[in-house]
Amino acid sequence: MPRPEKHVFVCTQNRPQGHPRGSCASSGCAEIMNEFMSEIQARNLFDKIGLTNTGCMGPCNMGPTVLVYPEGIMYGSLKKDDVKTIIEQHLLGGTPVADLLMPEGVW
After folding, report:
1. Would you call the peptide bond into 2 cis, given omega within 30 degrees of 0 as the criterion?
2. Can you tell me the distance from the alpha carbon of 104 to that of 84, in angstroms, rounded to the nearest whole number?
3. Edge-to-edge strands of the sheet including 66-69?
4. DSSP 64
5. What homologous superfamily is domain 6-95 in, according to CATH?
6. Among positive and negative, which fits the CA dihedral 95, 39, 103, 106?
7. 62-98 residue pLDDT tens
8. Domain ranges, ordered by start, for the chain
9. How many C-beta neighbours within 10 Å does residue 4 have?
10. 101 near 68, Cβ under 8 Å?
11. What's the CA gap between 75 and 11, in Å, rounded?
12. CB under 8 Å, gap of 24 or more: what pairs does 92-100 form?
């Protein structure tokens, strides 16, 4: 398997309902993870994009969160439709999606 150009980490942290920090699971991270998987498969991008689910990355109240390496770019409060934009503009096009970036004070 070739080394991917980009690696996407999707937070799938699940905490009990009502936990003060919240969790990406309660914000819809499964839908985000599934959409990344579907798009990578449909476009046959396995050699370009690695995808890994992960535990908490910190800003739980701004989930679902996604971290892209090697740049160290974090996106937050994502919706299913944002996945295609991230793939097109950032992962394939090389330009981070400014409207979806975590605020500087957070990441």
Report:
1. no
2. 23
3. 49-54, 6-11, 66-69, 73-75
4. S
5. Glutaredoxin (3.40.30.10)
6. negative
7. 989 999 999 999 999 999 999 999 999 999 999 999 9
8. 6-95
9. 18
10. no
11. 11
12. 92/45, 92/48, 96/68, 96/71, 100/75, 100/76
Q: Which two tokens stand for residue 22?
A: 């919240």
Q: Report which residue type is found at 26.
A: S
C-alpha dihedral sign at 74, 44, 51, 39: positive
| Beta-strand pair 66-69/6-11 | antiparallel
Tokens coding 50? 């690695």
Indicate the SS3 state at residue 103: coil
pLDDT digits (tens, 9 = 90+) for 10-41: 999 888 788 778 788 888 999 999 999 999 99
Task: Name residues whose C-beta falls within 8 Å of residue 54's C-beta, 6 or more positions apart in sequence.
Answer: 9, 10, 11, 12, 67
pLDDT band at 1 (very low <50, low <70, confident <90, very high): low
Residue 24 and residue 30 in contact, taking contact as beta carbons nearer than 8 Å: no
